[in-house]
Amino acid sequence: MLNSSLSTKLIATMNELTDSYQPWSAAKKFFFRFFFVYILFFVFLDGFMSVIVHATPLVGAWDSLLNVVGSTVFGIEQLTVKPNGSGDTTYNYVQLFTIFCLTVLCVLAWTRIDREKHHHERLAYGLRVFIRHYLALILIIYGLAKVFKTQFPYPTYEMLARSYGDSSPMGLLWTFMGYSYPYNLFTGLGEVMGGALLLFRRTTLLGALIIIGVMSNVVVLNFSYDVPVKIYSTHLLLMTFFLVLPDLQRLRQFFIANQHVEPARMTELGLNKNLVKAGRILLSIVLVGMIGTNIYFFVKLPDMMAAGNRDAVLYGQYKVTEFEPEILSTRLKWTALVVQGSGVRVTTQDGSEQNITWNADPENGTLDVFAFSDSLRSSTMYYTHLSDSLLKMNGWFKGDSISMTLRPVTKEDYLLSSRRFNWINEYPFNR
After folding, report:
1. pLDDT over threshold 60, residue 281
2. What is the pTM for the complete model shown?
């Protein structure tokens, strides 16, 4: 009798849930199906989860398909450059086009097979849960990268020495962001807060609205400063709008019509409570693990980079005060030297720059110099410290005997580093 009563209540509850939703229009069903398939394709083929697919043998078949699409549709013989530091490669755009086409085919097939379906409330709920946690993970990680100031480190010697005119738009943005930790903290906390609010159903709308503000700024910066994350950032913003979509009418009533708004309905759609609880525990473990791993990396990265610079012989920036012989062409006369990590950048009198590397022997004071443009040609130079403020270098470089005196340049020698915050400015200091 008890079991019969429970079954009756369960059936009545399920019927109530099913009947409480109005049938969707054909257009609404089509656009939802399109968005559902497209977002899953994008996340697992071009987004953060793509590492799963690209770590399996499936990536070979996928790359072959992209090469066929690239050659057939766009006349690209071979997609040789895969996603790297840039997420806006030709590969990415061909992939985006292919995802779009596959989505259309899948939706057409879905519509033909599932004609009798009145709505997709369960799928919409599931997709909403997936997007909430996906965005939360991405935004929290990106936000922590700003809080711990690893995404935008303080301008390096190389960036400080470069003129505005020789900076790339992206380099200019990185210098602007890297200069100020308070601004990094402000933007990072906005991303972390918005992402954290998405983890809870009751605060999802507030988190999504915060993220729309944050990500709109990110997307505009990416397009305005040619940062190659345009595709990905735009899709993150698109996903956030999806989270706000069910509440658009309520937002309009509250903010525009100045009307009373009923609370949003919170329902599990009759899902098994134990299954929901297990899913939440699993998601919590994954999120805590991934966020914790990134925090550990962000904490350790500055020390790792500093250690690499400290180990670099002659680390720092130098200005050439004397150079011999005078008869050399301006293309060969060194005027400045930046040693950072394993790389060395030489600036010559004609304004050009050349990247070189060297193997240093501090005990003997020798440098085996190699030019990246001609790795087979090497030369030996010698260095000695005349004083704390002067360095002497001489030897052979590109077949010529050269000798120079160099003066170390510190970051405090630059106005950008030495000019601090001022509460009082009698006159604008804008240079």
Report:
1. yes
2. 0.85
